[in-house]
Amino acid sequence: MDSLVFFILALCSLSSTSFIESSKIQNGFTIDLIHRDSPKSPFYNPSLTHLDLIRNAYLRSNSRLNKLSISLLSNDEKNESPESIILPNNGDYLMRIFIGTPPIEKLVIVDTGSDLTWVQCAPCVNCFTQDTPFYDRTKSSTFSNVSCDTQSCTLLPKKQQFCGKFNECLYSYHYGDKSYTIGQLGVDSISFGSNSVVQGVNDNVNNISFPKSIFGCGYYNVFTADNSVRTAGLVGLGAGPLSLVSQLGDSIGHKFSYCLVSFTSNSSSKLKFGNEAIISGDGVVSTPLIIKPSEPTFYYLNLEGISVGQKTIQTGQTNGNMIIDSGTTLTYLEQSFFDDFVTSVKEVIGLEEREDTPSPFHYCFTYHPDVGFPYIVLHFTGANLSLEPKNMLLLYENNLVCLAVVPSNIQGISILGNVAQVDFQVEYDLEGKKLSFVPSNCAKN
Hints:
The chain is of the alpha+beta class. The protein contains seven helices and 31 strands.
């Protein structure tokens, strides 16, 4: 790996940078999120059956869980590892960004479990195939390098930052599936164009630009999460200091939200920033948003229990035991808690479990219209979240219905996946340290 880094050192040059200017966006802005399997996605394949889509979604979800389990190694285990390991996204959601001057459009994966935004750059030494040209910093009049002595460079995790021979800031991100991106930290204009809606800036303008965005310019990239040739990188929406959300900071009031539609919907999900992200009114519930110093990227909630019908199962936890993640399809519950949960669901439904339950599901049954699914409520600290059957069940094939909740392989950690979040507006208030939910028709809002 040293040879890769040394090769990059010869490619780079000297400069400096600063964070995105924090001029206020009066009402914020909204971006389309595209589910990779939806009819609006460039990945859309009309020949795939519903069963194919469910299987593919599970494979992405399970892969992400396995990578997350590596990301949450103990400190001792991390110290034994020769490389820094972070969580990649084999992403359910995509968005379009425009980078540089003149702006070049890129389709990127959206990830609430990663921080660094990066794209593949020319001259690319070793890159995965993409169907658009690599970003070329020499052709952008607004690009500048980041030097090693700037605050921006020091915000990279220690094991992921290097200093080049011309004092340029280099990064090396390694993912749990042996993917990696290596390159230099740079600054350029990033904008959200024809697919975004800007409110309160100019109603006749449908793009907004942030002229000093910090991003990774990757020259060595292996990305096993996606071999579609359509994506060009990743946008990090995690809680770490170099994420897009953290860089926008004051300009968006440290707030963003999303409203997710089912992947079968013809509508796009929405990602909102600033005042546009704020949710209010009847039905809003809020719970503390927990950022752990040991894992500053991830958004933790504290799940106190789950009610299944009239029965409530307690977790006995108080310090943040569930990660909310838009890139994971299924919901994962810590093993012992899952066992109690699924037992309660079976008791209430009262239908015999299918013997041929397909992996990864742990409870599937034959659908009967006269059988009701139990009332399920997630009890977070300070917030009770009532879920509909569509948030808990997946129609696998024919009349086979499966519980979209499976056991987690991470000790003491559960994950709230995106199926459970469909048709909720979910607001992240990083400054107020709270996360809010409200039921919504996301196809219309």
